[in-house]
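Incident log, structure service

09:12 report received: a user says their structure output differs between two submissions of the same chain.
09:20 pulled the input from the user's history:
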Amino acid sequence: MTTKAILLTKSDDQFAARVAELSDEELRAATPGADVTVAVDYSTVNYKDALALANKGPVVRRWPMVAGIDAAGSVLESADPRFAPGDRVVLNGWGVGEQHWGGLAQRARFKSDWLVKLPASLSTRQAMAIGTAGYTAMLCCLALREQGVEAVDGEVLVTGASGGVGSIAVSILAGWGYRVVASTGRTAEASFLSALGASAVIDRAELSSPGKPLQKERWAGVVDSVGSHTLANSCAQTRYGGVVTACGLAQGMDFPATVAPFILRGVRLIGIDSVMCPQPRRQDAWQRLAADLDRSKLDALTSEVGLAQAIEVAGALLAGKVRGRVVVNVNA
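09:34 re-ran on a clean worker, output below:
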């Protein structure tokens, strides 16, 4: 039996991304230590996936590599008693698609410790409409609440709001009753963001250039997926005792800030890691997504492509031309 997958290869600086037919023997040989085989229904294209598919960043650590940091499907075989054939599962992160063959494939082999049983109310397609982006957004939103940011405290800023993390964060926070201000470079998407629940939309240019170490206080909380000057300005505008969650680097990995917001206003900067996040935290995030995320809004921010089209989507996503989430039907 063979499996279709997006295979990334690199030799003498010659890079290729293509749909390949892989044998069961190749799959098993490439995934030592994996004890669960999954029939994948859907995967997705996240920002990190796009970097890997377009060879635009040092994402892939081992060659050849099957791309895809996410997968959702059903267990075919399991050596772990916690999982039985037919169980629906979701996987995010753990180095999959980077160091371990990933989820942009019709079948995949993973370590059981990486898998989360999918909440009964979510389909595998919905799980990938959420994906790492939505799961990361929930981790950010939960962190704001756990750090004491309440809806009555004032406006919450979401940067990169038209992207995967940002759009789902807007929907979650609005659903929880927060007044959400969405920052985006695509102001034409204002009606889309308003439909997700944003109370106001601002141009990312207001945050993306160098700014003063301390600025007018505005935000009770921030969900930032952009980094660089945007994150620095967000911190400089956060109100006394406010909380900023940082999970991305779309503008850059640098953080050109000072300590002023943290020592003069007591601002808290919370880093959000989705890749190696402990299982109890993952399971809680997925249960909250199943319970709290508006499915009609999720549908509105989701598009679907086939396996081969995922390679084409990567460039558009990196160019900022993709709204919301892209689900990949690996069997189409």
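09:41 both user submissions now match this output. Likely a transient worker issue. Closing.
09:42 reviewer note: The longest strand covers residues 2-11. The CA atoms of residues 172 and 293 lie 6 Å apart.
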